[in-house]
Amino acid sequence: MAYILSELVSGIASDFSDIVFAGEKPFNRLSRITSLKEDASCVYLGDRKYLRKMNSMISMVITTPEIGREINTDAYGVCMCSDPKRLYFRLLDHLNRLPPLNQVENRIGKNCYISETAVLYDHDVVIGNDVTVEEFAVIYPNTTIGDHCIIRAGAKVGIQDYNYYSEDSGLVHVFHAGGVAVHESAEIGYNSVVGRGLYAGDETVIGKNAKISHNVCIGHDVQLGKNTMIYSGAVIGGYTVVEDGAHITMNATVKNGIRIGKDAMVCMGSNVILNVSDGKKVFGNPAKVVTFG
User: Fold this and answer.
1) pLDDT band (50, 70, 90) for residue 104
2) Do 10 and 136 reside in the same domain of the chain?
3) Which of 119, 228, 231, 257 has the greatest number of CB atoms lying within 10 Å of its CB?
4) Final residue in a domain of this structure, among 96, 127, 157
5) Are residues 147 and 26 in the same domain?
6) Residue 184 belongs to domain spanning
7) pLDDT, tens digit, for every residue of 187-238?
8) 102 part of a folded domain
9) Are both 114 and 228 inside the same structural domain?
10) Adjacent-strand bridge partners of 247
11) C-beta separation of 65 from 46 below 8 A
């Protein structure tokens, strides 16, 4: 679906008095500026350093007048105002809350065990074969669970994650319209939570044979690779990528947007604020490469 930003803004931003458009172009979705989705996107640009991240998939940019004057309006449409972040997140929340064009009826495969006390929302839940969903687990819409997966008691998959922006009235939660894909033979432990993707069409991914222990928090749009292991009490911030075979151990915390390399290990209690290279072991606060054991 193609959107015209000026038409959307006229309905949701009547309190903005300084919005200016230059070279306006239609777009099909909202997106992060670093996304490589092959669709015409509208993005928020709040810092000049991200000008070099611009790509051909971007058609509209919401930004400040100072940054907007540096953008080639032949290539990109620009919407400028003094508070572009608030405008962008108000727009994102508005579009995310629109009813989906198509709802999918729930599908459950063969030889599944779904506890009587588990909750499956009444649409857009797809479960493969030989899946176990234990007592008091909750599966939210836009969730796909592959064959041979286990969702342990009390786990919550596809929650509305923690994402707020500021209005004059206070903090406003941004509705998450994305989904979760749990791949074959993955396990999500007791009382763990997995946030759904923020943008419509985006997913949090739990990779094939990934093992998540109990009381773990997986943020929105996290990408867990194959055979990853997330130990009890770990917290992984949104948009983090954990490569195949990596381990994040007990009570470790990983900042949002971090990349944990293939076969790397984050040791217990560590706070990770920088990327971790393939095969490296890190420990501490802030976490640093170590060579013990």
Assistant:
1) confident
2) no
3) 228
4) 96
5) no
6) 107-290
7) 999 999 999 999 999 999 999 999 999 999 999 999 999 999 999 999 999 9
8) no
9) yes
10) 229, 265
11) no
67, 96, 125 — which closes off a domain? Answer: 96
Distance of CA 249 to the CA centre of its chain: 22
> Does residue 101 register a pLDDT over 80?
no
Q: Look at the chain and report how many structural domains it folds into.
A: 2
Closest by CA to 41, choosing from 53, 56, 51, is 56
114 burial via Cβ count (<10 Å: 0-12, 13-18, 19+): middle
Long-range contacts, stretch 61-64, CB < 8 angstroms, 24+ apart: 62/5, 62/87, 62/88, 62/91
- Please tell me whether the overall predicted TM-score, pTM, comes out greater than 0.90 for this model: yes
**Residue 28 and residue 12: Cα distance in Å, rounded?**
18
- Identify whether the C-beta of residue 42 lies closer than 8 Å to the C-beta of residue 60: yes
- Residue 150 tokens read as 């286990």
Q: Which residues pair with 282 in a beta bridge?
A: 266, 289
40 with 140, same domain? no
Query: Domain for residue 246, yes or no?
Result: yes
CB atoms within 10 A of CB 158: 29
Instruction: Say if residue 134 is in the same domain as residue 276.
Output: yes
CATH of the domain at 39: 3.40.1390.10
